[in-house]
Amino acid sequence: MGTQAPTYTLAEVFNTAVVANRAIAAWRLPHAASVQVCISLQDDLFIGQPVLENSAAGFLFCPFQVGKYKNSFIKADLEFDPLTGIVFSAPDAPVAGLKEFYTLLAEPTNNSWHLPESIAQLTSENYTAVVQQSIAAIEAGEMEKVVISRNQKQQLPENFSPVATFNKLLESYPEAFVSLVSVPGIGTWLGATPEILVSIDADQVFHTMALAGTQPATEKVNDAIWRQKEIEEQGMVERYILSCFKKLRLREYTEIGPRTIKAGNLLHLRTDFKVDLKEVDYPALGSEMLQLLHPTSAICGLPKEPALQFILAREGYDRSYYSGYFGPVNCAAGTSLFVNLRCMQLLSHEAILYAGAGITSESDPEKEWHETQHKMNTIGSVLNG
Ligand SMILES: C=C(O[C@@H]1C=C(C(=O)O)C=C[C@H]1O)C(=O)O
């Protein structure tokens, strides 16, 4: 008679990872039924530019701008299946780390999460003034589009639980990539993003998307009417993706869209680009496109360099991991990297919510401010009971 493996809850596993000072990621892919969880037992989590093709299985967590913040990789030394409650270890997982983790897992835990080492900066109240300056810079021909973002604190409710909030996000946003990531020294981020940056599925199909243009969700998605401003704004993201393909001399791709999609309380315009990696015989396309794409015109601007410099000089705060990219690498379903949007960072008693909006010469500063408020509500509403 075999002994049965002990079972745990996601909250027990999450809290143990924090007590053990380990990095943990829990996520659910869009429209997927199951939640996946991985924990790294490595002492060094930091990596340079990610190489996706030969990577171990794990979860990438990368900032908007590499420099002050690092690219981290949460290697799947441990995996957890919340449905069965069973924890699995990888054959190459460090033995001492495993022993310590299982010892701590047997003990009772409380709600806790990793906090950031550096204090998160907040934007001042001059969002509309920065948008006004952006419009002036665009009219002066410095760039065509720039994405200006802001952040805002919101009190955490009494007895806040990251895992219970993650579960609420799963329920509220079945069409999103829902995630809870907690890394020592970096902190804890929760979100429900609609935007793929790079994915490569189990059939070796590469996928990226141009997602931009925003309006509040209407009853019928297909009845949405888009203004010229949003059509052009999304077109710029498409053009940017096509310019990346062109740099790699890749001509064999399929393009579908733009179509209207619903993301929580909002609608966006989306064009999907797919490449069959078996047909084009380009196994490193994922890593090479990742390097070229980030930061795309959906979260930075066009052309990239002047827009990035404008953001760094004028936005007035540090985005850290907001509008960075993250997701599973070489897991059962392949690699799926998303843009870290509709997200919040957890402090001890507060969450910081982040959102941005694409600014073009047609922008109205007040409307853009409301758009960022709608985007923050996607995630902020789950804190309100
Ligand atoms: C920048 C954000 O979203 C991005 C910007 C959009 C826009 O400007 O319309 C739409 C979708 C995203 O690509 C955000 O959610 O913070």
TrEMBL record:
PANTHER family: ISOCHORISMATE SYNTHASE ENTC (PTHR42839). This is Isochorismate synthase. InterPro entries: ADC_synthase (IPR005801), Chorismate_C (IPR015890). Signal peptide: none annotated. Gene3D superfamilies: Anthranilate synthase. Pfam families: Chorismate_bind (PF00425). Residues 124-375 form the Chorismate-utilising enzyme C-terminal domain.
